[in-house]
């Protein structure tokens, strides 16, 4: 995966970047990402993941323990080998800024955009029977020992009982072709001090007879099997290889090829079988190698030429009749999905698929489904549900509510049975597994248990309830649902849904109100009193428009007076709507009026400083109306608009001065002869320069002109310093300084220079306005 971006920050500068400006790429299998914003995680992200040496020059990252997120750099290449990836859907998330952020104003969402290009190449072998970097290693297929077995393609332990129809995950794309043997129903008595239980099992067994599987010392052979439903265990046994010989080491790994130093389970099957309790649903890969007994502690065994042949037996065991557990004594129920009428497409709730639960109710009473046990203090009851394809951006919400003190414990696991030792998430009245960003336990009391699993993986989830055996005196209801946003954004925002760029997965997110932020709008960023003060500052700061409006009214410049007054009023109304106080018109209309009139006020100040006739001013104002309206309509919040507006105003001022200069002086027709005596012409330019300075000195008051430029520089600084956290203070300063700078620029003009008109021009205009008949007489 090649990632290229226009961000180029050196590695030593990474820790100094605020979290709100940190750009990261997150990779995750099976579900969308939620970046961890804790300080410890960010420290490990920047110090442990990045390779040594200069970063950002196309480094190759190839580590066995891949971090979830990496920072953006100029060029980043991530290489994942087949022992680092597992089959399924991979999600790539781009985050420009992490942590809670204010959305108080739509203006503060502006900022520098980052350009990102991504190139992903997936290389694989043409079939699942071969693998390796050069596709030169094989994955062996295993046939059963009896020749009369049906030769169809099957998956291990595909139990087609009526009560388990809803437990199957979605169809696997690849199947294992083996000869399977389904044993008859076996009844085994398990002794107990109290009573005798009947263990009812169904098993699938496959084996390879002696001399049909041979392996050299130091070599490794691979196999795989698919577990598509609940299983108690599977075990791998080796036999018929002799007493004296090397040890036979077996490595197992879920959903990826095992290695000597990277596996889930391992053991010496030359002495005892390797047993995996409650295996996950999915594909398991198995590796077998022979190791000399004298070198078992050395993983880099010295290969010898001896070849060892043996037989291998796999057995996968499960329970029947809706039971599970070690002794097949615990109840297990499949939950069926009932969609809800909601704008979020995947919202639904789950209830047991039998007559004891009603489809109309989103909850069910738990005691009628609990397992009974008279010889143990605690019992287990399991519930399975399936998260449909395309719903990985939802969350699973589970709630237990009792009329008495709740003494239940809740365990969850993806793809298999949870237990005291193996689980993904755990919650009880007194403790929980709150170390994950994908898990939340909130508002739990002595009688309530409320937990959520964010962005749950697609596929089968199992929830195990550990409860006392005596529950006759309590009444507890349980609700399991698939929701869009956590706790409906805590009533502090609005839940939205969208689809990823591939269009195959829905995901939900919260748009928080002006005072809250975070993944579920649970972080209060501004207190109510702080919000009131910020609103007052943003609205009242527009009163600075009174200064230039007062000057214009005093000089009887009514057009400028209307412009400054309407600009201040429209800005106050816009920010009143923006902070959530009152909207007299739609937000978009108010935003357009605010920016358009603000642009016009800036440009109008420059045009007013040019003492030209009214006809020229009207022409320039008309052109400026069109240009500033286009700016406000196409991208009002662009930072570049400030420079564009000042450039337009400066151009208008320059054109006004040129027009005034052209009417004040007549052009002189120079002779065509070339005068080589150039020094005689230099005094004319010096006189022109001195006359220009004299005119400017007579026209402007320099102290006000200097104050105008100082306040204008303050306005530009305020605009530059605006961010999510300090928007209200710096934008209020922007209002004050930009109107004050206009006031100083207008006051810098001398009144007599502004109203002065040459007497000769006036007389000429009066004479030319007479009718021709009167002039001829």
From TrEMBL:
Protein topology in the membrane: Multi-pass membrane protein
Top-level taxon of origin: Eukaryota
Keywords, comma-separated and alphabetical: Cell membrane, Membrane, Transmembrane, Transmembrane helix
Limits of the EGF-like domain: 510-521
Transmembrane segments: 595-612, 619-636, 642-659, 700-721, 727-747
GO terms for cellular component: plasma membrane
Record's subcellular location: Cell membrane
Major localisation: membrane
Family: Belongs to the TMEM8 family.
Full protein name: EGF-like domain-containing protein
